[in-house]
What we know:
This protein has no helices and nine strands. 0% of the residues lie in helices and 42% in strands.
Amino acid sequence: SMGAEDHIVNDLPAQQKLRSLSGNLASSEGAWPSQARPILDITPLRAPRTDWSLRILVGPDGEFSGPPLPDGDYCVKASASGWQSAIGKIQLSSSAAKTAMLKISLELGV
Length: 110
């Protein structure tokens, strides 16, 4: 059997340009059950400070909103217990459309 670290990780669509860390992390099954505990992990892709990461807890309805971060490129990993993870890149930019939201959907199954 596969270890916890071997589960499927899906790639998100091409890098998305966003003004802020807000959006929706959806489950292919509808609302998130409490045991799924969906989270987003955000890490910067470039110096000067690549030694930190930010974890955002996602609500049962999938909505999330993170604190303001400096413009730049970030890696985003979405995961939930019992679901396949997804990983990709986003660019935070003050020139991005105000309406641009990060939308991710995770498939059931590890």
